[in-house]
Every structure is written in C-alpha cells, then in structure tokens.
UniProtKB/TrEMBL annotation:
This is Methylthioribose-1-phosphate isomerase. Catalyzes the interconversion of methylthioribose-1-phosphate (MTR-1-P) into methylthioribulose-1-phosphate (MTRu-1-P). It catalyses: 5-(methylsulfanyl)-alpha-D-ribose 1-phosphate = 5-(methylsulfanyl)-D-ribulose 1-phosphate. HAMAP family: Salvage_MtnA. The gene is mtnA. GO terms for molecular function: S-methyl-5-thioribose-1-phosphate isomerase activity. Substrate binds at residues 69-71, 117, 228, 279-280. Keywords: Amino-acid biosynthesis, Isomerase, Methionine biosynthesis. Its EC number is 5.3.1.23.
Length: 380
C-alpha cells in the first residue's frame, strides 16, 4: 500500500508535501475490468489491508460493515460503485449489449447502494449525481454503447472524488485560520483522510496549521463503541507527527475544566437547514460540555453534507447498529449474555451549541437558516 501526497492548489507554502496522507478510496482498471480500491478501516491500526472490489455487492457490503466510513468517503465509494457496475455489465454482457437493459440494471444498483446507511447525506448526494448522469445519457442519448456509458459514469465518479479532495483543502485552510500557535483542541470520532478522498474535514485544519508551523496538541476521544478515535484518528495524527493525547469519551469534561482544551473540531454526517448537526454518537455530549465551559465548538463539513430539505435535526434518520458493537470489542465479549443493548450510531447537536460550520465555500455562523442557504446559493 502506497501513500500519496495531495497536490494542494494555490498553496502559499511549499511545506504540505512534507507529510504523507493515506489514500482511502481510489479507482483502478486492469485487463479484467474496473476495481474499487479501499483501505480496510475495520482492521486498522493493527493491519493495513487493501480491498480490491469488482462487484457492486462487495461495495455495498464494505459500506455497511464500516470497511469504509466517513460521510464524504462513503459518497465517493458509492459513486465508484455505480461506475463499477457499468464496467461489470460491459465485460459480462459485451460492448453491444442493449443500453436499455443496462439502464434498468444500474437503477437497481443505485437502490442497493442507497440502502446501505441512512444518516450520511453525502451517500445520497453522490448517488443523485450519478443518477443525473445516467438520466442525461438515457434521455439525451449522449452515448451509444455500454463502454461509452461506463466511461461517462466513471468520469463523473472521478470528478466527485477530485471535488472532495479540493473541498478538504479549502476547509482545512479556513479552519487553520481559527487556530493559534500553542492551541490544544479536542476532536471526536474520525474526520481525517480516512473519512474522505482528501486530507479530511475536521482534521484538515490541524494538518494545515501544523504545516504552517503552528504548535498544536490534539485530545482524541476514543469514540465508543467502534473506537474510530482510538483506532483511526490517533493513527492518522501520529503518522502526521501531530502531538496528541488519547482519552476515553468520558474524560472530555475533565480536561475542559482543567483549561486544557481551547476549541473542539468535529465532522458531520448531515447538517439540517437550521444548523442542527448529526455526527457520531457522543458529539452532542461534547457540544454541551463545550458550551458549559465557553469553548468554541466548530463543525467542519463540505457543502454536500448540508441537507436543506430537512428543516431541523429532528428529521435526520439515525442509524441503529447491531448490539455486538457494544457488547464486544474485537470479538471479545465485555458484557453479560442477553443484556439489552441500544446502539444509535449518531446523535444530533442542536445549532445553539455550534459556534460555526466550516465548509468548503466559507464559514457559516448563526443564523444558520440564512447563512447556510447563502453558502449554497448558485452565485455564492
């Protein structure tokens, strides 16, 4: 597995090439067809394993099982899954296969991928873009063969990945401006390069500020029950050379009261029109603690995470995951047999606890009902 160095556009410093960033999801082709490549996050940090997926059902399973996770990365993976299916149809049925049959099959693939996870809106945003591309091909007859259709969908998926990489850079630069030399910050879950096609959302400001020479210290919540903070964020920051301290989730308030946390940076899986934010379970608790201790609470997310169709966070669907994630760690049982378990994967933080939402188009502040719509306006 090779690392890659992001080419950051309009970089004022030539220092960002000094750190290596781990590629999470990418596209390959060989003589047998197309491949969606994923770094298997379910086995990190003990093992680095690359999944090479050739069927859309494998892509759907990888999303559902958290082999790939993080809202932007899920969206990119789903887009690649659509393109992969088109290539598979081409190689299995031949270049002369009727397009109408392919269109019907690809609509079924979209439904399969759409059903994988309910909360992260980037998944649906990316699939809507792939559907729009498919409908354009069908209604305007811009392609005549299945290979041309596969190429069209592949190019759109690659654009989605490239746009995500650029949006990570933009959010990183905006967020880095909010960090001062010597700051200590807290983050929850994983919102770094492992969660995106670029350098991350909530971790991107840390990476860029670090490269700018600002001294930072990051407190990393372990993030039960799947331990994305302990397994993934700590691994990322350590590789980047950023000082960190790993803490359990219930230690955050202690360190806030000690005055050791100056700001909180988290990602998001969906942002409602009023600024309510769905993110990994436990985020709401951190936001309340930050509010009590007068600590800025920043949400970092691309505009593709904003869902203006939902007025408030109460309308955001919350994924309920299997009880084994709570009762077991790495296959080892830690709870009594047959104990009742609740396992919501996300919670919603009311906008009143959010200091600002850092997006790839700018920073939104209250009133979010106005500022978020302004960011998403076509002429913004």
């Amino acid at each position: 597995m090779q690392n890659f160095l992001p080419v950051l556009k309009e970089a004022p410093l030539n220092t960002l090439t000094q750190s290596q960033w781990q590629r999470t999801v990418w596209w390959e082709e060989d003589a047998q067809g197309a491949i969606v490549c994923l770094l298997d996050q379910s086995v990190l940090p003990l093992q680095m394993s690359v999944l090479r997926l050739r069927h859309e059902h494998e892509v759907a399973e990888a999303i559902t099982s958290l082999r790939v996770r993080g809202a932007p990365a899920i969206g990119v993976t789903a887009a690649f899954g659509m393109a992969l299916a088109a290539h598979r149809l081409w190689h299995e049925q031949g270049a002369e296969s009727p397009l109408e049959s392919a269109y019907r099959s690809l609509m079924q693939v979209e439904a399969l991928l759409r059903a994988t996870r309910p909360t992260a809106v980037n998944l649906f945003w990316a699939l809507e873009r792939m559907l729009a591309c498919l409908h354009t091909a069908q209604e305007e007859r811009v392609v005549e063969t299945l290979p041309q259709l596969a190429h069209l969908l592949t190019q759109e998926a690659l654009r989605i990945a490239e746009e995500d990489e650029r949006s990570c850079e933009a959010m990183g630069r905006l967020g880095a401006d909010l960090l001062q030399d010597g700051d200590s910050v807290l983050t929850h879950c994983n919102a770094g390069s492992l969660a995106t096609a670029g350098i991350g959302t909530a971790l991107a400001p840390f990476y860029i500020a670090h490269q700018q020479g600002k001294r930072l210290h990051v407190f990393v919540d372990e993030t039960r029950p799947v331990l994305q903070g302990a397994r993934l964020t700590a691994w990322e920051l350590q590789r980047a050379g950023i000082p960190l301290t790993l803490i359990t989730d219930n230690m955050a308030g202690y360190f806030m009261r000690q005055g050791k946390i100056k700001a909180v940076f988290v990602g998001a899986d969906r942002v409602a029109a009023n600024g309510d934010v769905a993110n990994k379970i436990g985020t709401y608790s951190v936001a309340v603690l930050a509010h009590v201790h007068h600590i800025p609470f920043y949400v970092v997310a691309p505009c593709s995470t904003i869902d203006l169709a939902l007025e408030t966070g109460e309308q955001i669907p919350i994924e309920q995951r299997k009880p084994e994630e709570v009762t077991c760690i790495r296959g080892e049982r830690i709870a009594p047999l047959d104990v009742p378990v609740a396992n919501p994967a996300f919670d919603v933080t009311p906008h009143t606890y959010v200091t600002a939402i850092i997006t790839d188009r700018g920073i939104a502040r209250a009133s979010y009902s106005t500022s978020l719509r302004q960011l998403l306006a076509p002429d913004a």
